[in-house]
Amino acid sequence: MSWSAQDIPDLTGTRAVVTGVTGGLGFHTALELGRKGAALVVTARNPKKADATVARLRAELPDVDLETLALDLADLADVERAAGELTSRHDRIDLLVNNAGIMIPPKSATADGFELQMGTNHLGHFAWSARLWPVLKASDARVVTVSSLAHTGAKGVDLRALTPEGSPRRYRRWQTYAESKLANLSFALELDRRAKAAGLGVVSTAAHPGYANTELQQTGLKMGNPMLGFGLHQISRVVGQSAAAGALPSLRAATDESFTGGEYVGPNLLGQMRGKPVLVGMTRAARDEELADNLWTASELATGVTFDVA
Fold first, then answer.
1. Which residues 6+ apart lie within 8 Å of 33 measured at CB?
2. Pairing with 89, which of 16, 67, 70, 184 sits 20 to 30 Å away (CA)?
3. What is the number of other CB atoms lying within 10 angstroms of the CB of residue 37?
4. Nearest to 194 by CA among 74, 306, 80, 82
């Protein structure tokens, strides 16, 4: 059966939190959840872009229950502040979609000194999910972590990148991006394993958008090579699918009630680059439980946040 946004069940009475809504994937994820009745909390780092995105959402959904929350995943102190604000406002979160991310920038660091891609894509969301965990756990929430086809380009995660000293190896933006997305997928699966071992009702799944035509590639490359960024964006327009289609795997992972945790959803055509959202495979590294356990421990040390699922 071909799954579409029409298959999202009625979400009236639920609250959904989506990170990174100023990009195409986050916007369309929030839009379709709101269209089905979910109250929305959307996060963004850039206030001007957040205002423009909220205006678009309200234009589509005039009656939506919508809140915005400033969140910079590249700053662990800001993650703590934002999570504190959210949990002080709400004692229930039914859906959390960890969607925000950065792609292939030149070598740079987070506010805490970690490589920017690993620090934002993985460590930021790890700390964010950990600080929201008491509410997520009490809500029997569904947590979706957005990974990428790029995870297949990583055979492991250089855990030295999660230390104050950082990795001594030469920075390669594509390799580091691949490892950050492998870390996302590994985290989603490990959260599922730990939640099930603790007998909790939380469901942790993962998704990837395929080759979606969004601003992500262009924005990252614009920071270091504007022409290459423009070229990649133009290729995306030709071979990629729309941001609305790219959001469907996240939406299915978040709302398909047949999923019990540990599922990975992506497009079904052209090597998972485009198509309808279906269950897809993942690499051996993504399924490596020892790597996942070591990554979890290293992430706790890096963020200073103990993530005790049980």
1. 8, 11, 16, 18, 40, 95, 251, 254, 255
2. 184
3. 18
4. 306
DSSP string, 127-139: HHHHHHHHHHHHH
Question: Per-residue DSSP letters for 202-269?
Answer: -EEEEE---SB-SSHHHHHHHTT-HHHHHHHHHHHHHHSBPHHHHTHHHHHHHH-TT--S--EEEEEE
What backbone torsions phi and psi does residue 161 show, to the nearest 5 degrees? -70, -15
- Convert the pLDDT of each residue in 248-271 to its tens digit: 999 999 999 999 999 999 999 999
* From 171, 177, 211, 264, the catalytic residue: 177
DSSP string computed for 82-117: HHHHHHHH-S--SEEEE-----SPSS-B-TTSSBHH
177 as an active site residue: the answer is: yes
**Domains identified in the chain and CATH numbers:** 11-210+243-300 (3.40.50.720)
Using the structure block, give the residue that is written with the tokens 């086809």. Answer: 149
Q: How far apart are alpha carbons 245 and 219 in whole angstroms?
A: 20
pLDDT in tens, 117-170: 999 999 999 999 999 999 999 999 999 999 999 999 999 999 999 998 999 999
Residues 11, 33: Cα–Cα separation, whole Å = 7
- Residues 82 and 71 sit within 8 Å (Cβ to Cβ): yes
Parallel, antiparallel or unpaired: strands 95-98 and 142-146? parallel
Identify the H or E element spanning 70. strand 66-70
Q: Are 207 and 250 in contact (CB under 8 A)?
A: yes
How far apart CA 310 and CA 304 sit, in angstroms, is 18
Q: What tokens does 198 get? A: 């603790």
pTM of the model: 0.93
